[in-house]
Write a structure and sequence with these properties.
The complex is a heterotrimer of chains A (761), B (78) and C (160).
Chain A lengths: L25 H6 L14 E7 L5 E7 L1 H5 L3 E5 L11 E4 L2 E4 H8 L4 E2 L5 E7 L2 H10 L1 E6 L6 H5 L25 E9 L2 H6 L3 E9 L11 E6 L5 E5 L4 H12 L6 E5 L14 H12 L3 E4 L2 H7 L6 E9 L5 E13 L6 H7 L9 E9 L13 H19 L3 H7 L19 H10 L1 H4 L6 E10 L4 E9 L5 E5 L7 H13 L6 E5 L16 H28 L6 E4 L2 E4 L10 E2 H6 L9 E8 L5 E11 L6 E11 L6 H20 L30 E6 L21 H13 L10 H9 L3
Helix pairs in contact in A: 7-8, 10-11, 11-19, 12-13, 15-16, 18-19
Chain B lengths: L3 H7 L13 H11 L3 H8 E5 L2 E3 L13 E5 L5
Antiparallel strand pairs in B: 1-2, 1-3
Helix pairs in contact in B: 2-3
Chain C lengths: L2 E8 L2 E8 L4 H8 L18 E4 L2 E4 L12 E3 L12 H8 L9 H14 L5 H7 L11 H14 L5
Parallel strand pairs in C: 1-5
Antiparallel strand pairs in C: 1-2, 3-4, 3-5
Helix pairs in contact in C: 2-5
The chains are: A alpha+beta (761), B alpha+beta (78), C alpha+beta (160).
Chain lengths: 761, 78, 160
């Protein structure tokens, strides 16, 4: 199921890169041995539970915990009074700038509760049953306030106000009245008025999307322990142990060196486990009672209180000439941030029109708070929402002109040298490759039956690099251990092993990977942004090259020749030519056995801030069948083409593409947060928050295209996030083709589609 | 090239500025001289694209005589 | 808290414990017997991550009380491999990359084994509907379904 496009220049003679090896952690995962967050225990461990707000918006007049503290079996109770007050400024924490007062308030409410499920207090007790009893004994005096959920309603001048110190940034002059609009941003090029005047065809449309959850099957879990001298250790399911360390130490006023964080295996993240919820609470409790405290969220808590992505209002307007050239593109995006500011509005604006070569473009965005959980990242945060609206309008414009959907995109495609809509010029990129491969794919030409329709959509994400550290230790018998600091969500450690084995020239089974805790490897930014195979891969490659350099030096020492005369090939040192000397080759094992005698242990290290991440594009084709009696949409066939630069392990690249595509289909057809009139979440479980199940889906044909990223030794581009960008529009465009109805409000669930069919929308 | 938010805050609306500098660090210094505060603001919370390549932390990166520089928000991921 | 004495066999071995009457079979397996291979994803029987066999029936162990397992034979993921020989499903899942984060994998393997033990020659549709009670968020189900179909062919001794 792999297609190599043109331009795969770094592919020749590779032994392991591109092979579908068995992942090194695989056996533990298929036997149930692998330890995820909730599987970890410590002697003397007790459990923690969280008291959560029953109201969407309320002032906290008082919290009385004395009855709870007196209950036998309760060892500690914490409220926000146990957390230092942090200033409301943006501070650096690792690689990101964050408002820690906002984060602290989300972890435990201070003067107000801002959403149904907002944490108010936490208790640690000898059993879950006792902890639950203790929660019931905590007395919170709430003054209920009016609430607001919807983004447009939250922007209205008379909307209930969440923060009386929120004055919109990015408007001139700064408003003198607070509002729920945290920020306004704007990007653009050229002159859109002139651009629209030059258009023969103009389409504009409004869209709405609902908040959707990343949907990881493993709920958040952490075990924290604090000793009497203030040394702390957290085990948790996280995408970034260094990020947890940075945030928790800030929130609790600890020095970073006091805290060690060990990542467990992680049961899904997709961006949702790049923040902290339970970790600061568990540690605060443990600091009080000096017992290890384990906390695990229930599924209901995951939905109520961990960050979904934004719901949004999207307005898009595109103008084009009748021969298919886009002359102007405009969008206004309004994203929900949840209870405190920080929706992914900026990347949403920047990615909206990124696949296109435009002279005139303007995107305006608003970051808006409302009484729902604070949003967290979800695969290409912000981009799937804006790209949904844009790709639907692109489809309509192409239709109006009478041009094929892919041909229209090809005519306007961003290529190497194109000025991106968000500013800089693209280096080598593979968008047109994905369009070509999609166009030539048999799926695009397969016949369709009655009530069936086909939709196409493209997607884009920047991908990031960032800080990564890696170590490569050579063992005395010539096997190796590769140590890195990025949790493996989807098989990345298999790719790291492949890259190390490739450079060392040894068998991939002789390299074992370790994902280390914060005390055992250099700083590594979190797993996310499609960065691990790129950035941590780069660190592993450099560490391996460092080892090869040392191996050549040791061989030179053993043979008493110049190191320049030694080459490393196929896992052996050999003289570069016969005039260097006649020596039998020395294997990694031979040299490792003599390491002590030739200078000491042989270990490679690399720490870097990887720059030059290659942006990636994808193009998806979706066939649907609509049941006009029930409104049910069945996805019949799905093809996802994506530029991976270089697929180190093709099966796991395909896996990322397939998983993201199905999440997008769920977002398009079924998933949404449903609130009642009191602002309480009604569907906080997998029964009523409906993610795709096996019987909903067809096979997902993942086609890998490789236009190498010149900034990575093997040409790697990140792959994890782009797949979520095209599916919603691909599905909506397919439904439009099948029914003639443009469904602009996600999800396109059966009741809504049925109503549109019956009323001929 | 600056985003509109920064240009409104610091340069009175100008989003395209021509500056002479050989490294990013020098560039930020020059911008600070022209528009006090802009350089340090850009140094903390932005990424920089130099001739199309995005750098999240580029103080030491070299800038060519005709390089095109864009200041962008730092990009995260999920 | 009331406890009751429960004896059962788990993966062929006798197990005996004092079980809180409110505890689920999943709680008992994970917390009392240290068999953490079965996972808690939802505690409402919707995700299938806790799938086990109870007297040859595929059940969500979060919906079964520990006390109900009295006298029953339980099979969990931990019993699937035979010493150091992986079950063909486990092996094929690895070869076909039918897992990414791996949290749902034990549940899928138990459920898929239950399918192939009863229906050695399922169609793709039958596989999908049988596994509809197991949620996966990482894979989109494609490689999981392929792995089950391939294993079925292998176990029938037929070409893939």
């Amino acid at each position: 199921m792999t297609t190599n496009g043109n331009g795969s220049t770094q592919g020749n003679g590779l032994k392991w890169v591109g092979k579908r090896t068995i992942r090194p952690d695989g056996v533990d995962k298929v036997t149930g041995r692998a330890q995820f967050g909730a599987d970890f225990t410590l002697p003397g461990m007790i459990v923690g539970q969280v008291l959560r707000s029953p109201h969407a918006h309320a002032n906290i007049r008082s919290i009385k915990t004395d009855k709870a503290e007196a209950l036998p079996g309760v060892k500690a109770v914490v409220t926000s009074a146990d957390f230092p007050e942090l200033p409301s400024t943006f501070e650096a924490a690792g690689e990101v700038m964050l408002n820690f007062r906002d984060m602290s308030c989300n972890v435990l409410a201070r003067k107000k509760v801002l959403y149904h499920g907002h944490a108010v207090a936490a208790v640690a007790a000898t059993s879950v049953a006792v902890a639950d009893q203790a929660l019931a004994l905590i007395e919170v005096d709430y003054e209920i306030l009016p609430h607001v959920i919807d983004v447009i309603e939250a922007m209205a001048p008379d909307a209930p106000l969440l923060h009386d110190d929120m004055f919109t940034i990015g408007v001139e002059p700064t408003p003198d009245k607070p509002s729920n609009i945290a920020k306004r941003v704007e990007y653009g090029l050229g002159d859109i008025e002139a651009g629209f005047k030059a258009a023969d065809v103009v389409v504009e449309r409004e869209f709405t999307t609902k908040a959707v959850h990343q949907g990881y099957i493993e709920p958040h879990a952490a075990v924290a322990t604090a000793s009497e001298d203030g040394q702390c250790h957290i085990w948790c399911s996280t995408q970034g142990q260094f990020v947890v360390r940075a945030y928790v130490s800030k929130l609790l006023g600890l020095e970073i060196s006091q805290l060690r964080v060990t990542p467990s295996e992680i049961g899904g993240g997709f961006g949702g486990k790049t923040v902290v919820y339970l970790e600061p609470l568990a540690l605060a409790l443990s600091l009080k009672c000096h017992r290890p405290v384990k906390m695990v969220m229930s599924r209901e808590e995951v939905f109520q209180a961990s960050g979904p992505t934004s719901g949004a209002h999207v307005w898009v307007k595109v103008g084009a000439t009748k021969d298919g050239r886009i002359t102007a593109a405009e969008a206004v995006l309004k994203y929900q941030a949840g209870a405190v500011q920080g929706s992914p509005i900026m990347p949403g604006c920047m990615c909206a029109f990124a696949p296109y070569d435009l002279e005139n473009v303007k995107v305006v965005g608003f970051d808006v708070v409302s009484n729902r959980p604070k949003v967290a990242a979800y695969r290409a945060p912000g981009a799937p929402i804006s790209e949904f609206g844009v790709e639907c309008v692109i489809d309509e414009v192409a239709n109006k002109i009478g041009m094929d959907a892919i041909a229209f995109r090809e005519k306007n495609a961003a290529r190497e040298g194109t000025h991106a809509a968000y500013g800089p010029r693209f280096g080598p990129v593979g968008y047109t490759e994905t369009l070509r491969v999609a166009k030539e794919h048999p799926h695009y030409h397969a016949p369709l039956g009655p009530n069936q329709g086909r939709g196409v959509a493209s997607g884009f994400w920047f991908n990031i690099g960032g800080d990564s550290s890696a170590a490569l230790h050579i063992n005395e018998d010539g096997t190796a251990t590769v140590i890195s600091g990025c949790p493996d969500i989807g098989g990345s450690r298999a790719s790291l092993v492949i890259m190390a084995a490739e450079i060392l020239g040894i068998d991939v089974d002789r390299v074992r990977p370790i994902i280390a805790d914060t005390s055992s490897i250099g700083y590594s930014f979190l797993t996310g942004g499609s960065r691990v195979t790129f950035a941590t891969g780069m660190a592993v490659i450099q560490a391996a090259e460092d080892v090869v350099r040392q191996l050549r030096e040791r061989a030179a020492m053993i043979w008493e020749i110049d190191v320049e005369a030694v080459v490393w090939e196929n896992g052996e040192a050999r003289p570069s030519g016969s005039n260097a000397g006649e020596f039998d080759p020395l294997s990694l094992g031979d040299i490792a056995a003599k390491a002590g005698k030739t200078g000491g242990p042989i270990n490679g290290h690399a720490s870097l801030n990887a720059q030059g991440a290659g942006p990636a594009f994808g193009t998806h084709i979706c066939d649907v069948e609509v049941d006009k009696e029930t409104g049910r949409v069945t996805v019949l066939r799905y093809t996802a083409v994506q530029d991976a630069g270089k697929a180190i392990h093709p099966s796991y690249v395909e896996g990322q593409i397939q998983g993201g595509a199905v999440q997008g289909i769920g977002w398009a057809l079924n998933e949404e947060y449903i609130y009642d009139e009191k602002g309480r979440l009604e569907n906080a479980g997998f029964l009523d928050y409906r993610i795709p199940v096996a019987s909903d889906m067809p096979m997902i044909d993942a086609v890998i295209v490789e236009v190498p990223n010149p900034k990575h030794p093997f040409g790697v581009r990140g792959v994890g996030e782009v797949p979520l960008c095209p599916p919603m529009a691909a599905v909506a465009n397919a439904v439009a083709a099948a029914t003639g109805l443009r469904m602009a409000d996600l999800p396109i669930s059966p009741p809504k589609l049925l109503e549109a069919i019956d009323n001929g929308l | 090239m600056l985003t509109s938010g920064l240009s409104q805050q610091f340069t009175g609306g100008r989003s395209e500025i021509e500056v002479r500098a050989a490294t990013v660090r020098q560039l930020l210094g020059e911008l600070d001289d022209l528009y006090p505060g802009l350089g340090s603001e850009l140094g903390t919370d932005t990424a920089i694209a130099i001739d199309g390549e995005i750098f999240q932390d580029p103080y030491l990166e070299a800038i060519g005589a005709d390089s095109e520089i864009y200041f962008l928000p730092r990009i995260g991921g999920g | 808290m009331v406890k009751t004495h429960v004896t059962m066999t788990v993966n062929g071995e006798a197990a005996e414990l004092l079980c809180d009457t409110r505890a689920t079979l999943l709680d008992v397996l994970r917390d009392e017997l240290d068999l953490t291979g079965s996972k808690e994803g939802c505690s409402s029987g919707d995700c299938g991550a806790c799938s086990v066999m109870l007297d040859d029936r595929l059940v969500c162990s979060c919906l079964v009380l520990g006390a109900e397992a009295e006298g029953c034979a339980i099979e969990t993921i931990e019993g699937m491999a035979d010493d150091d020989r992986l079950h063909p499903l486990q092996q094929t899942f690895l070869e076909e990359a039918a897992l990414q984060c791996g949290i749902c994998t034990p549940g899928f393997l138990v459920a898929a084994k239950a399918l192939l033990d009863r229906h050695p020659d399922p169609t793709e549709t039958e596989v999908r509907y049988w596994l509809a009670g197991n949620l996966c968020r990482c894979t989109g189900y494609d490689k999981i379904v392929r792995a089950v179909m391939l294993t079925a062919a292998d176990m029938r001794g037929e070409p893939r």
